[in-house]
């Protein structure tokens, strides 16, 4: 294990530990990720003694630029050294109250500290003490579980999950990120203890969901959340997507399975977390808009608009950001049907202009979502849609180059209209601005100031408005 601790910081930590006469170990995620050949910049140092004292000593000995933060209440310290973040904590033993996942903490031994950890793959420790430097301590056979790609608790899973139910979500998150299997007894315990998740804060749940969403195949996590019973507790709107109704021999697709397929397809093309959230929520209103029509079969009319309205409630409950990120998700959900309709019905310049106007700089994200939304088992239909999407994409490029409609600003604004006609803010000003916008979107006039101005002056005649400059000139001639 010497190869894992070649960075100069480990030499400094080892020397500092010898000087204050304590044993210390690099433990947990850093060791796990190194064994899996994954990059890791977060290093946990477990100290049999004072983590703060060792951190302070290391900070003095580390001659390069670093920042030390001490958290006396928790007995921890964090050293930021270049791109590394190193957490120092004393070995501890934990006990729990049934109604809280916050542990009662006492000083402990190396053995105590390894026992309190969530999964065997996170109990692995490498000694940094000079006499045993590089030695791997693996009391729970974490190496075997890494090799077999298994998530397992070091102790009785019922105790592990009942004590801290967040670990149930972490098990599923690790299984998703690493594409491991959750050991059968461990998963059975998650199912048994799933109701305990109710004592976990929404912020912690959202953090784990975001990490699942960021994985290469987030569908793995959502299927495990569903199978474990956790999803029905933390995200009932997704559960409502499950199932297929059949009437008169006609069924609809299972929208839960479809949604996860779309989520994975979006994930192949982008790391944008909020576009992935849009993929997860794009059909969220289908259960509440599902209707049977004797002519059309199953319909989900306006599910995009209803879904847009549902998102703030979901984000608020999950403590997700109620800001531009949420608005982006709403925008994607609201617009996600538009390119699909264009690909089915043919592409007009007017429709493309309106799509560009409404999507703005998010048009590429919208197209990524919409292409992922084609999940039909009919491969000929999928091929036809994707080919039509290429036509839509080219039209978007051509019309944007000509009409510049992304984040559109009116070529004649309200201030100029009011000044030209001697108006204050009123309904007529809004009417004229909208008339200019519609004329540009319909291709009646180009997106240019002079053409828009002449069009607007002519349009104003319908409101019996004349420019005050022209009126003044006419009055002068009469005199």
TrEMBL record:
<keyword id="KW-0067">ATP-binding</keyword>
<keyword id="KW-0808">Transferase</keyword>
<keyword id="KW-0692">RNA repair</keyword>
<protein>
    <submittedName>
        <fullName>Poly(A) polymerase</fullName>
        <ecNumber>2.7.7.19</ecNumber>
    </submittedName>
</protein>
<dbReference type="InterPro" id="IPR043519">
    <property type="entry name" value="NT_sf"/>
</dbReference>
<dbReference type="GO" id="GO:0046872">
    <property type="term" value="F:metal ion binding"/>
</dbReference>
<dbReference type="GO" id="GO:0003723">
    <property type="term" value="F:RNA binding"/>
</dbReference>
<keyword id="KW-0819">tRNA processing</keyword>
<keyword id="KW-0479">Metal-binding</keyword>
<dbReference type="GO" id="GO:0005524">
    <property type="term" value="F:ATP binding"/>
</dbReference>
<comment type="similarity">
    <text>Belongs to the tRNA nucleotidyltransferase/poly(A) polymerase family.</text>
</comment>
<dbReference type="InterPro" id="IPR032828">
    <property type="entry name" value="PolyA_RNA-bd"/>
</dbReference>
<dbReference type="Pfam" id="PF01743">
    <property type="entry name" value="PolyA_pol"/>
</dbReference>
<dbReference type="GO" id="GO:0008033">
    <property type="term" value="P:tRNA processing"/>
</dbReference>
<dbReference type="Pfam" id="PF12627">
    <property type="entry name" value="PolyA_pol_RNAbd"/>
</dbReference>
<keyword id="KW-0460">Magnesium</keyword>
<keyword id="KW-0548">Nucleotidyltransferase</keyword>
<dbReference type="GO" id="GO:1990817">
    <property type="term" value="F:poly(A) RNA polymerase activity"/>
</dbReference>
<dbReference type="Pfam" id="PF01966">
    <property type="entry name" value="HD"/>
</dbReference>
<dbReference type="InterPro" id="IPR002646">
    <property type="entry name" value="PolA_pol_head_dom"/>
</dbReference>
<feature type="domain" description="HD/PDEase">
    <location>
        <begin position="251"/>
        <end position="375"/>
    </location>
</feature>
<dbReference type="InterPro" id="IPR050124">
    <property type="entry name" value="tRNA_CCA-adding_enzyme"/>
</dbReference>
<dbReference type="InterPro" id="IPR006674">
    <property type="entry name" value="HD_domain"/>
</dbReference>
<keyword id="KW-0694">RNA-binding</keyword>
<dbReference type="GO" id="GO:0042245">
    <property type="term" value="P:RNA repair"/>
</dbReference>
<keyword id="KW-0547">Nucleotide-binding</keyword>
<dbReference type="InterPro" id="IPR003607">
    <property type="entry name" value="HD/PDEase_dom"/>
</dbReference>
């Amino acid at each position: 294990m010497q190869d894992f601790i070649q960075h100069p910081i480990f030499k400094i930590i080892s020397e500092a530990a010898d000087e204050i006469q304590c044993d210390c170990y690099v433990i947990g995620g850093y060791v796990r990720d190194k064994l899996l050949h994954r990059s890791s910049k977060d290093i946990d140092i477990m100290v049999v003694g004072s983590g703060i004292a060792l951190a302070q000593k290391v900070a003095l000995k580390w001659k390069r630029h670093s920042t030390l933060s001490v958290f006396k209440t928790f007995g921890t310290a964090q050293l930021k050294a270049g791109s590394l973040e190193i957490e120092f904590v004393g070995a501890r033993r934990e006990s729990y109250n049934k109604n809280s996942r916050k542990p009662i903490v006492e000083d402990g031994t190396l053995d105590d500290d390894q026992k309190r950890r969530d999964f065997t793959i996170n109990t692995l420790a490498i000694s940094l003490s000079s006499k045993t430097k590089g030695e791997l301590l693996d009391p729970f056979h974490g190496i075997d579980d890494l090799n077999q790609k298994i998530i397992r608790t070091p102790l009785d899973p019922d105790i592990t999950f009942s004590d801290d139910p967040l670990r149930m979500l972490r098990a599923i998150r690790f299984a998703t990120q690493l594409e491991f299997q959750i050991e059968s007894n461990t998963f059975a315990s998650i199912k048994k203890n799933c109701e305990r998740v109710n004592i976990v804060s929404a912020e912690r749940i959202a953090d784990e969901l975001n990490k699942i969403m960021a994985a290469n195949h987030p569908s793995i996590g959502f299927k495990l959340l569903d199978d474990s019973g956790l999803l029905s507790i933390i995200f009932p709107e997704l559960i409502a997507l499950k199932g297929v109704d059949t009437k008169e021999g006609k069924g609809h697709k299972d929208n839960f399975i479809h949604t996860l397929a779309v989520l994975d397809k979006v994930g192949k093309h982008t790391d944008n977390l909020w576009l992935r959230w849009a993929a997860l929520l794009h059909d969220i209103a289908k259960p509440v808009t599902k209707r049977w029509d004797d002519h059309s079969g199953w319909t989900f009319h306006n599910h995009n608009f209803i879904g847009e309205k549902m998102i703030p409630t979901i984000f608020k409950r999950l403590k997700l950001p109620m800001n531009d990120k949420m608005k982006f998700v709403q925008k994607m959900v609201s617009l996600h049907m538009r390119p699909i309709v264009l690909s089915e019905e043919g592409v007009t310049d007017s429709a493309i202009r309106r799509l560009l106007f409404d999507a703005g700089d998010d048009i590429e994200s919208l197209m990524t979502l919409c292409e992922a939304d084609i999940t039909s088992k009919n491969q000929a239909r999928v091929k036809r849609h994707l080919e039509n999407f290429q036509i839509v994409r080219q039209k978007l490029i051509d019309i944007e180059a000509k009409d510049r409609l992304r984040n559109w600003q009116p070529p004649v604004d309200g201030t100029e209209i009011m000044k030209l006609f001697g108006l204050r803010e009123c309904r007529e000003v809004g009417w004229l601005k909208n008339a200019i916008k519609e004329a540009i979107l319909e291709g009646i006039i180009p997106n240019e100031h002079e053409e828009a101005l002449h069009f607007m002056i002519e349009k104003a005649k319908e409101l019996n408005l004349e420019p005050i400059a022209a009126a003044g000139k006419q009055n002068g001639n009469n005199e």
